[in-house]
Write a structure and sequence with these properties.
- The protein is built from six helices and ten strands, in the order αβββαβββαααββββα.
- The protein is an alpha+beta fold.
- The strands form three sheets. It has a five-stranded antiparallel sheet with strand order 1-2-3-5-4, covered by helices on one side. The protein has a three-stranded antiparallel sheet with strand order 6-8-9.
Length: 244
């Protein structure tokens, strides 16, 4: 038992070191990914912020009113403290990749652009309900309301929808790399959506879309030693193949 414990601790330390090193890798390119995005002016920015939905390490997501389509959307804006070349590339990549994955179980992207200050943003469908982590936690605690609302048949249906989304992404050559309960949204009307494709990676160098191929060649993870080819994700949910 002692030998196995030592081996486990050594592997854990090795993984942690690789993970920390990967986080420190800087992108080799510049911010030319912003060149193709349309810049708004103070008078033409179409979104009026209503409330803050969530804030993370790289972006803040707001509830906003789209004055063009007259609907409420989720507006993702890169945080001012996350304006490094690496963060900008990851943020824009999330919008681009998600926009390519049009599927009933993947959150849809409405718009990508630059705000009046020249910082990137993108808008998504405004979500309701709760994430799968919250649901599983309530089920695990024996909450009667959740046990009634989420019988095994519904949980299996949710699982099937997740598999459908991941299978579709894989058919497009995209792997999520951070698939976890927190990134799966369930609403009250039976909808299951896979979110947060910010560190998704293309596992193919050529797609079915020549316009997307241009993006792949110049912006995403086709450059050796780029930030996009390093180890990313949440420990405990990351594919072990990344260590290879």
């Amino acid at each position: 038992m002692g030998d196995l414990s030592d081996q486990f601790e050594q592997q854990k330390e090795t993984f942690a070191q690789l993970f920390d090193e990967a986080r420190e890798v800087e992108s080799q390119g510049d911010t030319d990914c912003l060149d193709s995005l349309k810049k708004s002016t103070d008078s033409s920015f179409r979104y009026d912020i209503i409330d803050t939905i969530n804030t993370g390490g790289m972006k803040t997501v707001y509830q906003a009113f789209d004055s063009t389509t007259k609907r409420i959307v989720a507006l993702a804006v890169i945080k001012k403290e996350a304006l490094s070349e690496t963060d900008i590339r990851y943020f824009v990549q999330e919008g681009w990749v998600t926009a390519q994955l049009e599927h009933p179980n993947i959150v849809p992207i409405h718009d990508i652009g630059l705000d009046a200050e020249g910082n990137p943003y993108f808008t998504m469908k405004l979500l309701c309900g709760e994430n799968l982590s919250q649901i599983l936690s309530s089920l695990d605690s024996g909450d009667p309301a959740y046990l009634k609302k989420y019988p095994m048949t519904r949980l299996l249906s949710i699982y099937k929808h997740i598999c459908d989304a991941v299978s579709f992404a894989h058919s497009k050559g995209v792997v999520h790399l951070d698939l976890k309960p927190e990134n799966i949204q369930i609403n009250d009307f039976g909808e299951t959506l896979v979110l947060d494709w910010g560190i998704a990676r293309y596992i193919t160098q050529q797609s079915e879309d020549p316009h997307l191929d241009e993006v792949l060649d110049s912006q995403l993870n086709t450059k050796e030693h780029s930030y996009f080819s390093s180890i990313r994700g949440t420990p405990g949910y990351m594919a072990p193949e990344q260590l290879k």
